Amino acid sequence: MKTFLFQGDSITDVGRVREWEGHLGAGYPAMAAGKIAFNHPGEFRFVNKGISGERSTGLYARCNFEMRECQPDYMSVLIGVNDVWHALGQGEPVRPKRYEQLLTMLVEDALEVYPNLTIAILEPFVLKGPATEGQWEAFDSNVRELAKIAKQIAERYHLVFVPLQDKFDALANATDPVDWLNDGVHPTVGGHEMIASELVKALGL
Questions:
Q1: Is the pLDDT of residue 90 over 90?
Q2: pLDDT grade for 88, boundaries at 50, 70 and 90
Q3: What is the enclosing helix (H) or strand (E) of 29?
Q4: Angle ∠(66,54,104) on CA atoms, nearest 5
Q5: 204: left (phi over 0), alpha (psi -120 to 50) or beta
Q6: Are 12 and 5 in contact (CB under 8 A)?
Q7: Of the residues 9, 10, 56, 192, which is catalytic?
Q8: Which residue among 56, 76, 186, 192 is the active-site one?
Q9: Largest CB tally within 10 Å, which of 63, 79, 111, 163?
Q10: Is 52 tagged catalytic?
């Protein structure tokens, strides 16, 4: 049986029950797992290790241990918006170079131990909403900068890249942005469904 590990922040966490490995929360990991399990019955085990509030620093610090713990065949990574959000809240500059270093080390460490691991890098995203509109220009420019870095790393290591910002922009242009990200950062059920669909499609599962 193959193991699929979901890694990220609150967008990945979405209320998962820590004590119950099979509980994937109420967001895109559960939705993506449902699609994959339907298409490949009995072939996959799913583990969600997303942690609310996580930044690239924390994810890198714990990811090696959690990979050893569950021995993944597939791993998705969605991280970055808190690197911006926390920095803005504390009045500190965002450090894209540090984000690049940490995500690069995470990928290199993972592939060194698990050379056959399929890694999907999900693009960080943001829309204008209650949590972001007060510092919108900083949110938008900095998240897009990290998104560009995430894509470059995926291309450099021949990983799967899942573009999401353009998808959210198109949805937000068609209806109210809060229909998709309820505060500009955290997806609604419709936003999670889009992420899940794009992830499964990108992986060809």
A1: no
A2: confident
A3: helix 28-39
A4: 65
A5: left
A6: no
A7: 10
A8: 186
A9: 79
A10: no
Instruction: Give the separation between CA 77 and CA 83, rounded to whole angstroms.
Output: 14
Read off the amino acid at residue 158: H
Is 10 an active-site residue?
yes
40 an active-site residue?
no
d(CA 124, CA 139): 11
As a whole number of angstroms, the distance between CA 122 and CA 100 comes to 14
Tokens of 42: 């009995």
Amino acid at 134: G
Q: Which two tokens stand for residue 147?
A: 């998104």
- Continuous segment of H or E residues that includes residue 2: strand 2-8
In tens, the pLDDT along 103-121 reads 999 999 999 999 999 999 9
pLDDT at 17 over 90: no
Which listed residue (52, 73, 183, 197) is catalytic?
183
Inter-residue contact 141 to 186 (CB < 8 Å): no
